[in-house]
Amino acid sequence: MKFAIFFLITLSLVLIYNTESKKEIPGGYPVNRFNCTYECGHGKRIQIMCNNLCKQLGGSWGYCYWNTCYCEYLPAEVPQKKSIGIISCGASMVGVPDTEQE
């Protein structure tokens, strides 16, 4: 009986933890004036450029996800897409520095 109660309490705690840890972080894929996302690839330089782009737009952090820059905590007033399709008119990151910025 004690084992069953212990098991139920443990299971409840695990379920609560999983629910809390999966809360969605606000953000999105920033778009330019033509509603195109910013393409990116692999490599440290490209990751830094995505991060810098997101910081320039007011986000807290950015990274390359599915070959497109994704920004976390991007302000709601910044044009963005919450999801992307297979076909996109991706834009380059011209003018975004490729060195880490403070």
Automatic annotation (TrEMBL):
InterPro entries to which the protein is assigned, alphabetical: LCN-type_CS_alpha_beta_dom, Scorpion_toxin-like_sf, Scorpion_toxinL, Scorpion_toxinL/defensin
Organism encoding this protein: Centruroides hentzi
Domain LCN-type CS-alpha/beta, chain residue ranges per copy: 26-90
Signal peptide: 1-21
PROSITE patterns xref list: LCN_CSAB
Protein name as catalogued: NaTx
Pfam family, any one: Toxin_3
GO molecular function, one term: toxin activity
UniProtKB keywords: Disulfide bond, Secreted, Signal, Toxin
Subcellular locations according to the entry: Secreted
Cellular component GO terms, alphabetical: extracellular region
